[in-house]
Amino acid sequence: MARRTVIQFTDDLSGEDLPDGTRSTTFAFNGVQYSIDLSDDNVAKLEAALQPFIDAGTRVGAPSGLRRSGARAAGSGGSGSSGSGRSPEDLAAIREWANANGYSVGDRGRVKGEILDAYDKAH
C-alpha cells in the first residue's frame, strides 16, 4: 500500500487554493516578524499598501520589511540589489548629482524617494 501526502497552500485572506511552489510572504512590524500565505494579487495589494511607509521610512537591520521567499519572489536578495531597484553604480551617480544640486545625501544608506524622483526628472 502506498501513501501520498499532498500539501495545499491557501491564501490566508481569501481562502483560495494557491499553486504549487507557493512560498510564504514575511514582513516585520514593530519588531515582530509575520508570515502569511498570499496569492500574487494579494501580495501586490500588501506591497502597494506598505510602499508609502517603506518610502518614508529608514531601513534598519539586514532583513527587508517585506520579503517574498521562494520561487515567486521577484527581485529578492542577490548582491547589488536595492529597494529602489537601482544598481550600486546608479545610486552612486544619483548621490553625486544630489549633493551637487543642493540635496544632502550620505555615502551609504537609503536615498529618499523625492531625490530619486528629482534625479529622474533631471535626466
From TrEMBL:
Domain spans labelled Lsr2 dimerization: 1-61
Positions of the Lsr2 DNA-binding domain: 87-122
InterPro entries xrefs: E3-bd_dom_sf, Lsr2-like_dimerization, Lsr2_dim_dom, Lsr2_DNA-bd
Domain of life: Bacteria
Keywords: DNA-binding
Record region (Disordered): 59-90
Composition bias type Low complexity, residue spans: 61-74
Pfam families: Lsr2, Lsr2_DNA-bd
A GO term for molecular function: DNA binding
Entry protein name: Lsr2 family protein
